[in-house]
Design a protein that fits this description.
Length: about 400
């Protein structure tokens, strides 16, 4: 039996003072925006299962946050995964969906075959004027994206898409929907993912294009935007809207295969999910800290009782640990490391932590935690989803273990 090599991550490089100061300033700006603008909206709209207002999205666009990872020459901030996740953690602390909407910019939907059009779309993405939805999963293909059955059939200079997509968040309100579809069946000896390519379905916000219909999925949490099941029946996409990659992947080309770019993008998405989970868990810790000091029993604030104090300390320590881990992995990605195992690890640990911490927060709130009068129930509902999307915890364990152990 052989042991696979476990590559140790490179130690973090010291940042120049200006970069550290810029990160602190960006974090403080995002934290103030989340507290003063996002949180009041979340408190009002989440319980109504309402969508975030367009004005909120426009306010984030004005700050340049939809272009955090887009190069400066295309109008973006020219920063990295670290800064992208830094802002997302702060926004998710107020409302998970707002921390998520940033992913619908960042160069998504720009990897067209035409270079000039790509540059135009990158500039729109950086300004928050090109915000999309992603349609990867299907009723029978979630964690196993290689099982996608939606078909793309070539007809002249266009492709015709037919199939069913599930879990397409923001699909109706978006400027476009990226659809992963199968252009051909794999040849013998090829991986099951062979023949999968992403396509750009351009649309007007608030409408579906010809051949696409959908119905919203009634979720228990993650409110702020609607999540859709889409039916594609002859949706026509010009050849120019066949994409070379997802997630603003500058390293992809038309012959490299769209599925590979999806996998690369998922590493960033998993670190992003870890940061969002930390934001939700941090909210639970901060609200619980305040509650333990305001709630009195037996003539004392309940924060005086050692069992509750120690529980809060454990919660805070877990959040700090997960934050340090996502920051390390984000740094690796910014250094050009693939960090596939690390991305899976941090997604697994941070999201499972968020479930534990928000559950403990509800317990420490007692009966008041099991009401909609307190925010903690929202944190609990949203944290539960983080262990599922962007690959379930079980999938993350499989990714890590498959890279540690050979199969007999």
């Amino acid at each position: 039996m052989t042991q696979r090599e476990i590559k140790e991550p490179r130690p973090p490089e010291l940042l120049p003072p200006w970069r550290r100061e810029a990160r602190v300033a960006l974090q403080q700006e995002a934290r103030a925006f989340a507290r003063d603008t996002v949180l009041p909206l979340a408190d009002r709209l989440d319980r109504e299962k309402a969508e975030m207002p367009r004005s909120l999205i426009e306010a984030m666009a004005e700050k340049g946050w939809f272009g955090i990872t887009i190069p400066r020459e295309h109008g973006g901030l020219g920063l990295g995964v670290f800064e992208y996740c830094l802002v997302s953690e702060e926004l998710a602390r107020a409302w998970l969906s707002v921390g998520s909407i940033l992913a619908r910019g960042q160069g998504l939907g720009t990897q067209t075959l035409d270079e000039e059009r790509r540059r135009t779309l990158l500039a729109k993405s950086a300004r928050g004027k090109w915000i999309g939805a992603i349609a990867l999963s299907e009723p029978g293909a979630g964690s196993d994206l290689a099982g996608v059955e939606t078909r793309a059939v070539r007809e002249g200079d266009a492709w015709v898409l037919t199939g069913t997509k599930r879990w397409a968040g923001f699909a109706l309100a978006a400027d476009f929907v990226e659809v992963l579809a199968r252009t051909r069946d794999p040849e013998p000896g090829e991986p099951r993912s062979a023949g999968l390519e992403p396509f750009l379905v351009v649309k007007e916000p608030g409408t579906f294009p010809v051949g696409m219909t959908g119905h919203p999925i009634d979720k228990i949490g993650y409110h702020g935007f609607l999540t859709w099941q889409l039916e594609l029946d002859g949706v026509r996409v010009p050849e120019s809207d066949r994409l070379t990659g997802l997630y603003g992947d500058e390293g992809a080309d038309a012959d490299s295969g769209g599925f590979a770019s999806v996998q690369r993008g998922l590493n960033i998405a998993r670190v992003h999910t870890a940061a969002r989970a930390v934001g939700v868990a941090r909210a639970a810790v901060e609200d619980t800290q305040a509650y333990l000091q305001e709630r009195e029993q037996f003539g004392h604030p309940i924060g005086d009782f050692q069992a509750l104090r120690f529980a809060l300390a454990d919660m805070a320590a877990e959040v700090a640990q997960a934050r340090a881990f996502w920051q390390q992995v984000a740094h690796l990605l910014d250094q050009g490391e693939p960090a596939e195992s690390e991305s899976a690890m941090v997604k697994l640990l941070a999201t499972e932590m968020a479930v534990r911490v928000t559950n403990q927060a509800m317990q420490l709130h007692g009966g008041n935690g099991y009401t909609t009068e307190r925010r903690v129930e929202r944190y609990w509902r949203d944290a539960r989803l983080t262990t599922i999307f962007e690959g379930t915890s079980e999938i993350q364990r499989r990714i890590v273990s498959d890279r540690m152990l050979p199969r007999s």
